[in-house]
Design goal:
The protein has 3 helices and 7 strands. The protein is an alpha+beta fold and 181 residues long. A 7-stranded antiparallel β-sheet has the order 1-7-6-5-4-3-2, with helices on one face. The longest helix is centred in the C-terminal third of the chain and has 32 residues.
Amino acid sequence: MGENTNENAPLFQVRSQTEVSAVPADVYAVISDLPRSGEWSPECLGGEWVLGAPAAVGSVFRGENLRSEEVVSWAPVVRGKWHTHAEVVAAEPGRTFRWAMHDSTGTPQDSVWAFDIEPAGAAGSVLVHHFRMGAATEGIRGITAEMDAAEKQKFFADWAEKLEHDLAETLGRIKLVIEKN
């Protein structure tokens, strides 16, 4: 996406989709089980529910993440292992599951990861994975604080490309997890 020039445009808005040979309820049962995300995420190793009922709106998930040195290697992003907290903001079985990333004070940010599911045929689904960051998060502000305009533009372009790749990779892995069962 790049750094936006329209104040109302999101910093990042990426999506990917795939067809899955499973009904929406079965797809939802997998994608809403965030402790299993280590099976399909390029960065999240899994984690645990730390507040509320698993996968319910308002519940908080503590994720353990791992990012390699090669990911947008020139930018000062978090490397190695780190933890995040995310709050479920939508949970409609068989239809949608979304979570917003918390900042360091535990406040949800305008940074939402989501899955939407549509039926496809008698026993299939279309699974859409998307990410939207409206305003810069605490992390993005820290990463770009010392960058000049050209470096910021390069960072936003490189990070958008990384996000697009991650969403597609995640969907491919989820498809394999679901269809091998």
